[in-house]
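I'll show a typical protein example:
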Amino acid sequence: MSGFRSAVGRLLGRTGTTPVAPAGPVVEPPLVGFVVHGAGGVHPASAHVRVTGRLSALAATGAARVAQVEPTRWADGTDTAHLDVLLVQRDAFPASHLDAALARAASEGTRVVAEVDDDFFSREARARLARAEYDPQRLASVERLVHGADAVVVSTDRLRRVLADAGVADAVVVPNAVQPGLWDAGRTAPDPDGPRRVLYMGSATHTDDLDLLRPAFDGLTDDDGRPVRLEIVGVTGDEAATWYDRLPLPADATHYPDFVAFLRQHAARWSAGVAPLTDDPFNDAKSDLKFLEYTMLGLPFVGSDRPSYHGVERHGGLLADDRPASWRQQLGTALREADQRVADARVYVTAERLLTADGPWRAALGL
């Protein structure tokens, strides 16, 4: 883990002052090892938002050292580093090695913390994941992890209740947040020519959610008669559909900060952002992250009136039910009142939803 020490040195920088010899032995801060998908600083969006961004902030305070752990090597003892905390996200720890890792943690006094931001547990969610050919071993890994961990961190209160029903009590709710400095602070001015574009972004697993929008955008125009077109980034693998436009992601935008930079580069294309969700228990456990991201892109938000987004209407967001007329009405309001709604949302997000190293997340780590 020598690379970790040099990375933290670069992160914290140098003061330029003359060092003073300590009066006694130097006590190193606790070491937090984390297990997420990806490596070399390149991770999926959920890992960056939920784990690596927060750990970077924690390391910057000097309260802990952090290092990514190769799970099989730590489980079998090849990696001999003593960890004060082992933080595992979702299904990143192979099920075949998880029992060995939990046994080692117990013998060495390592605190195990599970980080989960999706419903992998309810009957309906597991059936949905099975239809999507989700690897059963990944489900087994998550289930074993949350039952063997010393603490469990989740992203929503609905997900906390799902875990309680699955026999995991006292999960800690840490709402999603956006990282300071990653997003542009300015309101973009949409392109005055051509159609009004509305952004829907997400992973390529949202075909059913996308279908909610088709009748709403059929022939949709704004108050001035300009066509309003839906433009997607990711969301679905269907390349043949013609009722929406697609903005392709470059190959190097799979890393979340690069993805955010891509969105910022194109922000002036869009007049609003949408987040449809079907009536599905799996969706109900999701967070309001898209509201935060669209707000920081400078776009007014219209989302489904589902538990994930309840409360955003108090901060400039708009909610629509499944009827096309409801989506059309709320989209019209978003386009007319964009500046004020974005301003209201930014006040809330910058005051209450910026990522920090403190709060219940840090307490769950035992630091």
